[in-house]
What we know:
This protein is an alpha+beta fold. It has helices spanning 3-14, 34-42, 45-59, 130-150, and strands at residues 65-70, 73-78, 81-88, 93-97, 118-122. Helix 1 crosses helix 4 (130-150).
Amino acid sequence: MSRSVMNQRLLNAGLRSAKTTELLRFDGAVERDPAIEVWMIGHGGEMGATARQWFEVMRKSGDEVRELLHDGCPVACLGDAPFGYVNVFTSHVNVGFFHGASLPDPARLLQGTGKFMRHVKLRPGTAANSAALTGLIDAAYSDIKARAENG
């Protein structure tokens, strides 16, 4: 089964009723924000490379992906509606999702207890479940697309 078919099945199972809450929107999202490259350069080393790797996956989610620096970290959006972000901390990298609480997470990677947001912590020297994390990014993009189209 292809990854896109698997992700769509997960979305159908986990997101049968996309909440009709008003979408968070950010002004200023562009195709490539130069401030993000400056941020990436400023976050070197292994954790910076990890953040860059996963932000690139977000960037490649679809043709409509836009980005901006918000609250000091790179954010990926569908148009002006954010779906994911990366941030570097002292001991880990967060790959976060604005509607992560609604995402199917069979690998149980997501952390957090907020009403909407969830994140995956990536630590140096610990292997990431790349397939599952890529699936979460794909699901987050599909989710925000459905929310934007239906709401």
